[in-house]
Specification:
The complex is a heterodimer of chains A (274) and B (275).
Chain A lengths: L1 H12 L10 H16 L2 H23 L5 E2 L2 E2 H32 L3 H4 L5 H28 L9 H25 L3 H17 L12 H7 L3 H14 L6 H25 L6
Antiparallel strand pairs in A: 1-2
Chain B lengths: L5 H4 L6 H25 L1 H23 L4 E3 L2 E2 H32 L2 H6 L4 H31 L6 H25 L3 H17 L15 H5 L2 H14 L4 H28 L6
Antiparallel strand pairs in B: 1-2
Helix pairs in contact in B: 2-6, 3-4, 3-6, 4-6, 4-7, 4-8, 4-10, 6-7, 6-11, 7-10, 7-11, 10-11
The chains are: A mainly alpha (274), B mainly alpha (275).
Chain lengths: 274, 275
């Protein structure tokens, strides 16, 4: 009899978990799943981008620097380093969220994310935060490994941080949109090859935009990557090509818009739910 | 003749009839599976590498500005263009073959290919020729597109062709070995990120060796990609020392033969593809 009472007691203890306004446990679980997903293959997701960025830096420095070439009042390599760092961060944020959603869709385990009691905004936040984390981790690793070779100094650390977080967030959200829209790996490869890479290459990472013909300077100002890289670089060398305030305000505004679009898509279940 | 087991079929190629059939087999695997596949995905296999390489050229043109010759008689862009083209060629050859093999293995389609009466050497060339064709096509298209920056250039057709085909052969064979060895994409991207890309970037595509400190130069001179790029650049622009190219070309041929032998051996053994 005593035993029965014990079992009774246990049964009442495992009553359904009540979830408050925010499913903190669920959100945390989704976020840590996103982080573990890329840490599990850290050679591909952290090491490879770091090595590639350092190689790029070496190649461009050897090919273009060395002749006392200066851009914006600093050595070419000092000018280049922050831009490359930002490019790698954004590419990795995008890759993380887009591949996470697409792989889940292709393999069918997206239901494991859709079924739990997670609100659309919690799902969006958990996945986006994973992408931002990867971007920032890659950025920090690149930063510290560049410090081994270059005297890098931060003129305005908070500005650099602001632009880093906003840029990673923008690409993480874009990656989610891409991942939701894409139905095959080809689709996401096309977005990466024909939209993300060109925008990030033609953003003023490798040259100061006053190199461009006048007509193209105006075009460059429509490229969000220009503001990310320019603002981030301002945080390092204290010199910006454009107006830094424009970027500092524009990026969060764009992020807000992207957030609403993403949230809307997840709520309606566009290409996620049958 | 069709009764021959796969292992013997290549040894009994005597009459013309049988030889034609052997070619037909390679053709089927090469064309029907390889070429049709990359042409179907031409956006990724042709357009993708072209767009990113042309972006690279644009960025270099903008970053360099109008000034400067890299070496006497060649502008920096003229110096970079051939190297970039042949690097993309090598990478495409490697990736294409790897992709085909890994996808065939993952989807289990490889058994269909293994069941067909194909000898190991036919399998080897069936797979690698598709990668070679894709790579050469990318390089030709790229060289055409690059004339926007460089103007038309061709110094020696034969040197260009020799180094282009050597590069495609060598890297498609590396692709075969890596593709057979890879159980997952991880192993492929390991080699791609930590071997192929560094070999290509640290090879004198973008700068001459005298930009490098003396005691590091040997590292570049020992890089097969460096020989390929120097040779190909010689073929296109006429810049480079012919003496060096002859021994470098010689070693390349030896390397290719070694890799062909490795690929053949792996297919013969059925390494990771036969139970």
């Amino acid at each position: 009899m005593c035993r029965m009472a014990l079992i009774d007691q246990k049964l009442t203890q495992i009553a359904p978990r009540t979830i408050g306004r925010v499913n903190t446990l669920g959100l945390w679980t989704l976020y840590s799943r996103e982080v573990k997903r890329f840490l599990n293959v850290f050679t591909q997701t952290l090491m490879a981008p770091v090595i590639t960025t350092l190689l790029f830096l070496a190649v461009f420095a050897l090919a273009l620097g060395g002749l006392g070439r200066t851009v914006g009042g600093v050595d070419y390599i000092t000018f280049l380093a922050p831009g490359l760092m930002m490019m790698t961060m954004t590419q990795n944020s995008f890759a993380n969220t887009s591949s996470s959603i697409l792989i889940a869709k292709v393999q069918g385990n997206i239901v494991d994310i859709l079924m739990p009691p997670l609100a659309p905004w919690e799902m969006a936040l958990g996945i986006a935060a994973g992408g931002i984390t990867r971007g920032l981790m890659v950025g920090l690793t690149v930063f510290f490994s560049m410090m081994l070779f270059l005297p890098i100094s931060l003129a305005h650390p908070l500005s650099a941080l602001w632009f880093a977080i906003n840029a990673c967030m923008m690409l993480a959200l874009l990656g989610m949109l891409g991942g939701i829209w894409a139905q095959k790996y080809d689709h996401i490869a096309a977005v990466t090859n024909f939209i993300i890479t060109p925008l990030s290459f033609l953003s003023g990472t490798f040259y100061s935009i006053d190199r461009l013909p006048d007509a193209w300077v105006a075009v460059a100002h429509f490229n969000p990557f220009f503001y990310m890289i320019d603002g981030f670089r301002y945080g390092f060398i204290g010199h910006a090509d454009g107006n830094i305030m424009v970027g500092a305000i524009l990026l969060p505004v764009v992020n807000l818009v992207l957030w609403f679009v993403t949230h809307r898509l997840i709520t309606t279940g566009y290409r996620l739910k049958a | 003749m069709n009764d021959a087991t796969p292992d013997q079929s290549s040894n009994i190629v005597h009459s013309d009839g049988v030889r034609i059939i052997a070619l037909l087999r390679i053709w089927t695997l090469f064309y029907r599976r390889g070429v049709v596949r990359f042409m179907r995905f031409w956006v990724e296999s042709l357009l993708g590498p072209m767009v990113s390489t042309m972006l690279f050229m644009t960025v270099f043109a903008l970053a360099l500005g109008p000034d400067g010759e890299m070496v006497p008689g060649l502008s920096a862009l003229q110096f970079i263009a051939p190297g970039l083209a042949v690097f993309v060629l090598s990478q495409t050859a490697f990736q294409n073959v790897c992709f085909m093999l890994i996808i065939d293995k993952q989807e289990g389609v490889i058994t269909d290919v293994l069941m067909a009466p194909l000898s190991p050497i036919e399998l080897l060339f069936g797979y690698s020729l598709a990668g070679i064709a894709n790579a050469l096509l990318v390089a030709i298209l790229l060289l055409g597109a690059m004339t926007v920056f460089t103007g038309p250039m061709l110094y020696s057709f034969w040197a260009t062709a020799f180094f282009a085909i050597s590069a495609a052969l060598l890297f498609s064979m590396i692709g075969v070995v890596v593709g057979l060895w890879s159980d997952k994409w991880d192993q492929f991207s390991l080699v791609d990120n930590f071997l192929v890309l560094p070999l290509g970037l640290l090879s004198g595509t973008f700068f001459t060796l005298n930009r490098i400190p003396e005691n590091w130069q040997w590292l570049f001179e020992a890089n097969p990609m460096f020989w390929i790029i120097s040779g190909f650049r010689y073929g296109i622009t006429g810049y480079g020392s012919v003496e060096d190219l002859i021994w470098q070309g010689g070693i390349l041929v030896c390397l290719i033969l070694i890799m062909v032998a490795c690929g053949w051996l792996l297919f013969k053994r059925g390494y990771k593809i036969k139970a």
